[in-house]
Amino acid sequence: MVIDLNKCIGCHTCTLACKKQWTDGDGMDYMYWNNVETHPGTGYPRGWHTIGGGFDQHRILQPSPLPGREDYGEALEYDYGQRLFEGGKKPVMPRKDARYMPNWDEDVGGWDKDNPHFFYLPRICNHCTHPACLEACPRKAIYKRTEDGIVLIDQQRCQGYRYCIMACPYKKIYFNEVTGKSEKCIFCYPRLEKGKVNACAAQCPGRIRFVGLLDDPESPVHKLVRKYKVALGLFPEKGTEPNVYYVPPFNPPKTGNYGRSIIDDPRLPLDYLKYLFGPKVADVIVLLESELKRAQSGQLSEVLQLLIGRDERVRYRIVPDLIHRDAPAEVQERTNPNELAGPAIEKKGSKDLPAPTVGHAGVEKTDAYPVTSAASNAFGLGALATAASACGSCAISKLCSSSVENGGLGEDEGGPVQWY
Amino acid sequence: MVLRLSNRMTSLPRITMEASRPRLAGPDARRGRLACTFIPTVILLNVLSRYSMGVILLAVVASSIPTSSQSQPGGAAPVLSVKVSVSGASPSALLPGDDAAWKAIPSVPIHLDRTPPLYDTDPKDDGYRPSASMQLIRQDTSLYVRLTWSDDTVDSIPAAKTYADVGEPEVYKRQSEVVDRFRDAACVMIPRERSDGTNPSMVMGDVGHPVILYYWRNGEGFAIGAAAGRGSTSMSATSFPGHASHRAGQWRVVFSLPMKVASLPLALAIWDGSKDHRDGLKYYSLWYEVHQ
Question: Which of A404, B72, B78, B138 meets the CB 3.0–4.6 Å disulfide criterion with B84?
Fold first, then answer.
């Protein structure tokens, strides 16, 4: 995934889409597999980018202390009852005072030479090429899927030891106290396997997310990372090789409608961007600035045209055939059409749902976009076997009770839900 | 690396480790560290435990008085032998652990050691060892193990809260209240079978010698698990009778195990949640030979 930070407006729709889709179950109150935080800032959990994790230069794991619940903040419960049902006149208030919460320092940012500045940083699990979490798990409960690189936690093997949380430099694994297991972003693999893009991307009003395979020359991710080289991973020095890339902010306006390059007239401190994305960020900014100049002079800038992301055909390329082409034999075998048989996924809103023992195997025919029918078969079936075998393999117990198709927020065929 | 047997703390053998580890890189480093620390320990413990069945090294005291250990000439395996008392008390009386039957028999002091760190980043051994003892009562085909050890703190993952409110209680979820604490726990490990007369590896058994694990986890209760080597532990949903209480800085946990044979080896492990103990980070004992 590539996320263009120049276009993020900090609306948190991605966060809510993810929350509604995956993490509204018991024990998941503080989990934000996707969150958006203001930078410069402390982030979520508090201080995640300063407490450690990842590998050192010798590739030795450097686990951090475990963040405490105080570093996540308590989920606020409001006394609606007195106001709504008991005739109370007091304003609805939280039961406790908040001391921290996601996006606690929203829009605070930094202040440098009378120059206030901030930008938004949406974050999910980076599904790293060398996951520190995987390396740290003594149970071997964490695995990286061969076919697409998605990193998952086997919920059957996980014993809740939390070495993975200590090892993750991004602190994107959460401990569920109710289940006693650790849980994390699953990159919406049940959606991908049905040809649907991730919920966070599907719902993004700013169209800032690009999804595809890094090795697929046709994918926008390949183009932005490998071809145009305008997207960088977060904290590359942590040694995990994150697979979520960011197009750095490069031209925020100070006043008026037009900005100037951060190199020439830094509204955002270049050092802070280097802190987040490494020294290559300066080269990326120069490159993007030159592309902007080219576009402003009336010429065509392919990279800016791509970054505009006019429609889903530009932003997403989910082609299961490509995944399966390079997948090991056992994965390709899952394309057996006979495996399609299975109960349909339960629709959202249905209570008393069946136990998720077989429900994950359900695959409905969808108007999956942009997958062709053949590709849909390939991916959908991969989905079938994978999801069926993964019922206990990741935190998707609510898959059976939630519509995977609707992106968490009631996505219609016309696009993301309207928030106004 | 120096592996040393020492009787410094008690008359029972104590394993200490002094390691000077080469630093390797990446996954090799992990394997390397495992090779440096884990494997010799496993080998040592295997040697200690496997020869224990073939060579009786300890005098078995006629009553239920704990025995002390001796070393086989050549420094081979220590064996710890404990005799079981027989009681006619009812199971319901034995389980809470304060029946007169328990007071009538002496306690066997248990020597515990802490597992060596597997990784450079593991918490350092602070040298502390809990004071622990064990009592054994057999009743018909059940073996009651009353394990007592010192622990000033009661550590558990508190039961997640559910907020009820007027109107729509179903919308309120159970919350994760504490996410950085670990629970106190204890375990009695026994071999699944003794076909070849050797005890399983101390490190959760091994492929040829699987073990059955009787776990108590504070706040969670008693459950049976199985393993055949480190990292292979699987928990079942099956519980077993047991009782746990904490008084005056001591945990007292009674396990009820099936025992249909004349003698049975068992090993013990204790986790201290306040020291972030979990997984292989724990206090452990060597094999005890329990017989009537």
Answer: B138
Please, are residues A186 and A22 in contact by the beta-carbon 8 Å criterion? Answer: yes
Mean pLDDT, rounded, of chain A: 79
Residue B37 vs residues A68, A103, B23, B115: alpha-carbon distances, Å: 31, 43, 13, 10
Quick count: other Cβ atoms within 10 Å of Cβ B164? 10
Q: How many CB pairs under 8 A join A and B?
A: 101
Burial B29-61 (b: 16+ CB within 10 A, else e): bbebbeebbbebbbeebbebbbbbbeeebbeee
Task: Please name the residues between 132 and 191 in chain A that touch chain B, using a CB distance below 8 Å.
Answer: 135, 138-140, 159-163, 174-178, 180
Torsion angle of C-alpha atoms B9, B13, B14, B16, degrees rounded to 10: 130
In a domain, B222, yes or no: yes
Contact of A175 with A161, CB cutoff 8 Å: no
Q: What's the token pair of residue A304? A: 């800016």
CA nearest A45 in B: which residue? Answer: B179
Task: Please tell me the pTM assigned to this model.
Answer: 0.77
Do residues B4 and B13 make contact, with C-beta atoms less than 8 angstroms apart?
no
Q: Report which of A106, A116, A125, A108 is spatially closest to residue A11, judged by C-alpha positions.
A: A106
What ipTM goes with this model?
Answer: 0.73
Among residues of chain A, what percentage have pLDDT more than 90?
A: 60
The 3-state DSSP composition of chain B as helix, strand, coil percent (nearest 5) reads: 15, 35, 55
| H helical segments located in A79-204 | 80-84, 132-136, 163-167, 189-192, 199-202
What number of residues does chain B have? Answer: 292
Domain CATH for B149: 2.60.40.1190
What is the DSSP annotation of B7-65?
-SSSSS-EEEEE--PPP--HHHHHHHHIIIIIHHHHHHHHHHHHTTTTS--SPPPSSSP
Domain assignment of residue B285, yes or no: yes
CA distance A138 to chain B (A): 6
By Cβ distance, the residue of B157, B172, B231 closest to A177 is B157
Question: How many independent structural domains does chain B possess?
Answer: 1
The reply to whether B51 falls in a domain is yes
Question: What element of type H or E holds A379?
Answer: helix A373-389
Contacts of B160 in chain A (CB under 8 A): 26-27, 177-178
Could B173 and A24 be called an inter-chain contact, meaning their C-beta atoms sit closer than 8 Å?
Answer: yes
Helices (H), chain B: 26-33, 39-50, 91-94, 100-103
* A81 phi, psi to nearest 5 deg: -55, -50
- 3-class secondary-structure state, position A331: helix
Q: Encode burial over A266-303: b for 16+ CB neighbours within 10 A, e otherwise.
A: bbbbbebbeebbbeebbebbeebbebbeebeeeeebeb
Q: Do A27 and B160 touch (CB under 8 A)?
A: yes
Determine contact, residues A142/A153, Cβ cutoff 8 Å. Answer: yes
Quote the pLDDT of residue A95: 78
Residue B194 falls inside a structural domain? yes
Model confidence pLDDT, tens digit, residues B150-185? 999 999 877 666 655 544 555 567 888 889 999 999
Task: Please provide residue B47's backbone torsions phi and psi, each rounded to the nearest 5 degrees.
Answer: -60, -45
Q: Which domain holds residue B246?
A: 2-158+171-291
- pLDDT, tens digit, 9 for 90 and up, residues B62-77: 233 333 333 323 333 4
- Å from B155 to nearest chain A CA? 14
Q: What DSSP letter does each residue of A196-222 carry, written as one string? A: PPPHHHHT-TT--EEB--TT-TTSHHH
